[in-house]
Design a protein that fits this description.
The structure holds two protein chains of two kinds. The longest helix of chain A is centred in the first third of the chain and has 34 residues. The two termini of chain A are 41 Å apart. Chain A has one domain. Chain A is globular. Chain A has 22 helices and two strands. Chain A has a two-stranded antiparallel sheet. By secondary structure, chain A is mainly α. By secondary structure, chain B is mainly alpha-helical. Chain B has two domains: 63 residues; 74 residues. In chain B, helix 1 runs antiparallel to helix 2, helix 3 packs antiparallel against helix 4 and helix 4 runs antiparallel to helix 5. The chains are: A mainly alpha, B mainly alpha. The interface between A and B is large, with 62 and 66 residues.
Amino acid sequence: MDDTLQNLALGFSIALSPAILWYAFVGCVVGTLVGVLPGVGPLAGISLLLPATFGLDATRAIVMLAGIYYGAMYGGSTTSILMRIPGEAASVMTCIDGYAMARKGRAGAALAIAAVGSYVAGTVSVVALMLLAPPLASFALRFGPPEYFALLLLGLFVLAYMSSGSMLKALAMAALGLLLGMIGIDQMTGYFRFAYGVVELGDGIGVVPVAVGLFGLAEILATAGLAVPPQVIKPTLRELLPTRQEWRESAAPIGRGTVLGFLIGIVPGSAHIISSFVSYAVERKLAKRPQEFGQGAVAGVAGPESANNAATSGAFVPMLALGVPSGPIPAVMLAAMMVHGVSPGPLLIKQQPELFWGFIASMYVGNVVLLILNLPLVGVFVNLLRVPYAILYPSVLAFCILGVYAVNGSVVDVWIMLLMGGLGYLLRKLDFETAPIVLGVVLAPMLEMALRQSLAMSDGQYSIFVARPISATLLGVGLILIALGLQPLVTRGLDWRARLALAEKGDEHP
Amino acid sequence: MLTTDRVAGGALVLLALVVFWESRRLPLGSLRNPGPAYMPVALAAVLLCFGALLVVLAGKAPALSTVSWTEWRHAVAIFGVCAFAALALERLGFRTTVALSLAFLLLGVERRGLIFSTVFAIAFAAAFLLFDTFLRMPLPRGPFGI
């Protein structure tokens, strides 16, 4: 514990230096803007702004990108509450009761509760991250290729299980992502695979053009033609203070949302979305007046908002400690860290303590910055939504092209983005989730390398995966999840994923 | 009935078959010692299974005819602009490409005024200074260094 506190003091000495503070602030502001803009979620936001950090050193760049990440999580709630448009997917549940509160004239209170809940959840979960990541990293030093193979496979299974809608569709998308990740030079033999003479494909398909295409461009393609201007409810500063009753009603949901969100965040999958859904369902179950849910229940805003922000920190645990991204956003963060010469994993904490602890401390600072930003400046951010979408989307499109090109200075990446945008648009139309594709692209080379190294270690014996206790346990958990995922096929009922899919479409309350 | 899942499943099966065909040029290796084609073939087999299952279990999925395509004109125009940008970026430079793309979208697709569209496009192109000079992002220049 003493070590942790000493390290945290080191982290704060870095995070509170004016330069780092400035980049945390810039990241939070930009992230909030990204979160407020419908369609430009944290994934596309981080991908687009990655090239802007190329001129910075690793610590500043990571602090800024992390600021964008949790800034976007905060910002997403604003549009949910004021316009019933989720700025990012995790804010879907906030739309239901947040917008209902806004229509009752309690928009300011809903925003304040969301901001305070996010702040509490963000801060508490950073403490948990700080305590959990170092021991997990020490444990992960025992991991060899078979354990990593089992862990990566488990990550894909959990993502598929946690995805809303059909598990079969999610697994199919993960397999598609893994196949896309096969493009490029085979790391063990040097063969070019599916590159068709395009030299730039030798390094494989980058995660940034894939993410920007599937999320940014696909969203623009799907929404630019729908010119129905949504109504914006604009709260005044005076309305921002919740009543004593509202504070009382939000306290317990914030606490429960924080714990739930962090625990779900650690597990691979679309943690933010799942955590907010689970929190909403739990709050509704525990409520004395469940009939108020959907009509502006305070707990329906406080719980999910806290949960999705706690999940943000939770998602950093496996990424920092194991070097394994737990979802598409941590995958892009991982790629961003690698661009800056940082290799997250068990050795990061020992080899680069300034970066690790500076990053942790900057998250505390970032949460304070976001609380200050989100309450008084909410009117400023909302004004952004007054810019007609017909003007907004061409600008976002230009940023997509610029951001994707700048990562490698390659037009091939722009073409990849274009193809992925078209694919994402079609998949949206056919009701398929695209997040597993992004994770598949990132995990494919790691998964293949781990498999082949494991077989080399065992002289071609596949039993190595069940002979080692950690990998056997991880694979066992994966199989259980597959079985659970297939259960609705047998029982023919709506399981929680199907209900989540319906809720995301706004068809029913979970 | 042609459902969304059936169409998607069919496309995935087709893609898997293409991967099988294209993998024949690479050494497959063996189960004990996988070659460069091993993983793509294994994944294509998995994809083929999932695609086939989707086709078989697609009965409850919505019919393809229920999918709304009302925004397709916008989508095609935006897609075309992106393709133009990819072709022109290194030939005309960032500033000219972005200015032309934005001008087309605002003027041609969104029917905004000529003056507004021109000023907006030029202003965005001028952001080159911010990205290239201040943020040191490597952006291409066109003829005459523009």
